[in-house]
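== Sequence and structure of one protein ==
=== Format: two labelled lines per protein ===
==== Data for this protein ====
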Amino acid sequence: MFQIGASYKATDALTLRAGAKSPITGTRQLHECTVPATIKTHYTLGAGYAFSKVSEVNGSYTYAPEVSSTNSNMGYTTTHGQSNNWQLMYSHRF
């Protein structure tokens, strides 16, 4: 597995983030009979904004490029990619 990420504190309140992750060497199909998903590399972007010492909001986006994989044992090819992975989170510390 290969992962890399960076975080940049643009201001006291704003933090920008980016990263990449390759969870599996090469392409493989997971749960071949039930969920024939092909996973290879994901790219992420994110930002956080601190309203105060106890209140902040964070958001992120993940993109997985389309990848194809052939399962010769089962006799099919799977193509999978995602570009709709958004997350928004509000945190309040007590």
